[in-house]
């Protein structure tokens, strides 16, 4: 794997550390600002509003302008906004800061995977490369949960943001030193946004891949937002204990699952058909469908656990299967479209999976938890996970764009 992949993987790790600090410190913020469960869920989703609304803009320019410059600007924006999160004295400035974190991260998340694909000498290795890149997600997310929980208990929740923002400033400079791959000039899109969007919507493989990923993101977003507080509220342990155990589970299961998905995502691809094109997309979708089939019943029983240890063990296997789908799901999306449309495709994917996924699920689960026992409220997330398996199976049989 090349140095570009390792640098962008490190940036991705810090990206998710900054993103998931809020999950661990949310109970402390809720106490300070006297928030309901629904308000807390909305607060944790505000980041996603900036993230999804600006991703189409970065997708458009990413297919036409220098991606290293755009990615570096994004890293700088989210680092400044993370620092501002700790400085906020009132609730509404904190909301604005979290939305701006989303703006910065939208640039990086939209442009990094297509940039990685273009930097590979052998494009058929995209699934394995994305397996490495996305392995940073569980490590960064767990680091954010552990860091945030520890800082909130030992010092103050604000310090988690102050110190978490630091690495991003140096990484922004390093990203700016990257150069576009030599063949990039032949892959620049000349299409209008309307033409690009119409082409994507006509692509059945792309549509079903994104819709299934959206249902899974709905579930994962809710799990991530509420798991630490579930341990504290339902299972009666401290925030530190809940955050540490769930964080450790996330690191281990996420790392193993993501790397396994990167290695075995082609499992259902028929021999001799190569590792790209429509058949690869269908194979990725079938692999992802089975991961959701396996995760769904375990998730149901996780929210019936009676101890923190039982909850964490079951959550480990839920996360293992969910993260195993991460690289194949994104490989399906990027392999379903021409290279010149990759950034736009990722932008549409990001907008959809968040607008219909984890922007909705934390406040919805929080609202339900205000009106029924929390274990019952969390079952809406389990249902979404089951739905994702059905849609991925449909995507595994979808026609290619050329056949329509």
Task: Give the biggest sheet.
Answer: none
Q: What is the CATH third-level topology name? A: Growth Hormone, Chain: A
**Domains, number:** 1
CATH homologous superfamily descriptor = MFS general substrate transporter like domains
The CA-CA distance between the termini, in Å, is: 36 Å
Mean pLDDT: 85
Counting DSSP E segments of at least 2 residues, the number of strands comes to 0
Q: What is the chain-wise order of helices and strands?
A: HHHHHHHHHHHHHHHHH
The total count of helices amounts to: 17
Q: Flag low-confidence runs.
A: none
**Using only CA atoms, what is the Rg?**
20 Å
- Gross morphology: globular
CATH architecture: Up-down Bundle
Strand content: under 5%
Describe the fold and architecture:
The chain has helices at residues 3-33, 37-62, 67-87, 91-119, 126-154, 157-164, 166-176, 193-201, 204-233, 239-264, 278-302, 308-324, 326-335, 342-358, 361-371, 374-377, 379-395. It is an all-alpha fold. The longest helix has 31 residues, at 3-33.
